[in-house]
Write a structure and sequence with these properties.
2 copies of one chain form a homodimer. Chain A is of the alpha+beta class. Helix content of chain A is 20%, strand content 35%. In chain A, helix 1 (15-22) packs antiparallel against helix 2 (59-66) and helix 3 packs antiparallel against helix 4.
Chain lengths: 243, 243
């Protein structure tokens, strides 16, 4: 089992705040000791840092935490390699990233999708896994469907939801499928078993800030709520948007 | 003007050796102070580190140098943003990376290709720039042509050369086009103005090691030679291969 972390905010906020929540979960207070990854956006480009080592011991993660990176969207992941044949390599470490129509797309998954490789419904077209995980296969499938949906103009929340709904429903038949996906504008959150969120609203640097945090389990003492299972949730600038 | 660095080796060797050559060129003894980037391979996956800050001042680069990363292929780049409208952002920092048929492809460029955006010969299909540089546009074009050339089976050196030759010749008409490109097996080197190489052969950890280093200008006291301009050179395991 892995742990997901997501953040969507109205205004840029410190990436180190998200990191501080994630880091102790990876091998210190949590059992997810096979890797960690963090992606955040600078405009249309995702910066992705990941390593197949425990987050709590990572010198690299400790180092990033000292940088003053700021972003409106963050996706993080702590990995427990499961099944173990999906080895501890950088290629098997989440989040995964691909370019589609001039934007970075980023994906992280919690769960298992046994049989995805062999199922003809999930044959891949344009995008292909570099590593050996079911998760990266699922990401490539979602991107194939998003690529079909776009004629080159940017996808809105409704377009994203319409393209994702059929493959997500089909993938849910295989097993646990809790994921976060982003293109730098939208943060898509989906769970068929477990994913929680909390909303924060405050004044930050003189601006009204709105933030939504998503995580596999509650990471703070705030009143985290489970997200509605089986439904695509799309967040833009810290708020859920109709999709 | 930017500076390129490439390495292809028969056996894995320390990435920090390549870094040590690159780092002082970025803002300390060279004027290339707008960014640095380094990619190396772990199997089919490229790990890419880059920052829009001077290499010589980068805490991140200093940090990577302390890690014991090993690889058979490295591509590095030190950036002088030119023209300045291609801003100092991560998206505009080389090397660029994309997935094609389950492998990471990595590209870094030295030179200028004015007019690439407007020229109908260079209209893009599948791959699109995330940033605003002529370099990333050229990379996307080369990948579009490589994507057309593959039916899914791995590309050999002759396939890679055959796919690249026409677009590379056409791009040369626009201006300076010195680049390094890799899929983790092949290191493609091309120059129409300036690129040098040196070959090293030694016994390392009990194995016969073969290494080729490529760089814009000689980086050591060894006898660096200019590569033959206008011709695609493809290196595999530290040696040039017929293409």
């Amino acid at each position: 089992m892995c742990e997901l972390l997501g953040m969507s905010a109205k205004h840029e906020t410190d990436v180190s705040h998200s990191l501080a929540l994630l880091r102790p979960r990876g091998g210190e207070i949590g059992p997810h000791a096979d890797g960690w990854g963090l992606a955040f956006y600078e405009g249309r480009e995702a910066r992705v840092f990941k390593e197949p080592v425990p987050a709590a011991e990572s010198r690299c993660l400790a180092f990033i935490a000292e940088y003053d990176y700021r972003s409106t969207i963050v996706i993080g992941h702590i990995r427990k390699a499961n099944p173990p044949e999906f080895g501890r390599t950088s290629a098997n470490t989440h989040p995964f990233s691909r370019e589609l129509k001039g934007r970075s797309w980023v994906f992280a998954h919690n769960g298992k999708l046994p049989g995805i490789d062999a199922d003809p419904r999930f044959t891949l077209e344009r995008f292909h896994p570099i590593g050996s995980t079911d998760s990266e296969h699922a990401f490539c499938l979602l991107l194939d469907r998003l690529a079909r949906a776009t004629d080159g103009s940017p996808l809105g929340a409704a377009d994203v939801a319409a393209a994702l709904r059929p493959p997500v429903e089909a993938l849910c038949e295989l097993g646990e499928f809790n994921f976060l996906l982003s293109d730098g504008m939208h943060l898509v959150a989906f769970a068929n078993t477990e994913l929680h969120y909390v909303v924060r609203s405050c004044v930050e640097r003189g601006c009204r800030q709105e933030v939504v945090l998503l995580a596999t389990t509650a990471l703070t003492d705030e009143a985290w709520l489970p997200i509605e299972p089986g439904r695509l949730h799309i967040f833009v600038e810290g708020r859920e948007t109709a999709a």
